[in-house]
User: Fold this.
Amino acid sequence: MSKNNNTQKTPILTHLVAGGAAGFMEACICHPLDTVKVRMQLAKSVQKSASGKKLGFAGVGVRIVKNEGFLALYKGLGAVIAGIVPKMAIRFSSFEMYKGALADENGVNSRTSIFFSGLLAGTTEAVMVVSPMDLIKIRLQAQRNSMADPMDIPKYRNAPHAAYVIVKEEGFRALYKGVALTALRQATNQAANFTAYQELKRWGKKVQNIEGELPSYQTLVIGGISGAMGPLSNAPIDTIKTRIQKSNIGTGSAWNRFTTVTTDIYKKEGFRAFYKGLTPRVLRVAPGQSVTFVVYEKVKGWLEVAQGKIKEGEVTIPAPQK
Assistant:
């Protein structure tokens, strides 16, 4: 993150490239866990093996690979990658913008201002990018076609095709089904994420008397801890949102859909159903945030060093040949 007393503002392009690189790496590494999480959340009853034994997240993952092929774990990845660059650019740049606006006259941020900066950044990314991307991803992940069988043709072939079919059959507004819950999830995620990350980072620097950036392995650990805070605090919101977005029923108000799905889950599956997929979600988000923060900090640092050398004349950019 940018330091509070940093007189030279980091260009938006730096946030775009660093955030995009971080998001791409995070998606490629952690997407299979997200697919398992979605399948567990969409299951109306406890998933069991042929012998009747309850399946955990590992068992569900093995079943997906066995029935649909290994590539099935990457269903919806195209939608994620297509949205990850603007998502991360908006997340980090808007967080820095809100953090600057909420800083005191000395440019110092309190824990409260960091929390609200994360809250606003999460809401911003949810409305602008995450909600439609999430809906398309969930529709793709919910399909149970075999990736190994070319004759098993799914309804949605890929992310662009899914977007086209959804808009054609359900209207453009369908892409924003569950947007309020998505915004609430992202807001609480990033509020907890950035607050924990900033506080742990500050504490780590203070204890070790470090002026610059922490070592990458420490950023990895801090990112994992901060990343786990969001899923632990808003699991029911994510489960309800996933059920609403998977449904193709467009009638009724958003509140009616929310109350119907919530009541249906509670009556038919019990209170614990709201926490379905929590384990793979934590295992998806926590290492995902570890990767995100490490790659973001590294790429951002490299870009800032390169920009500094260019400004000082140590590196020259050759003029294009005529």
Q: What stands out?
A: Confidence is low (pLDDT under 50) at residues 1-7.
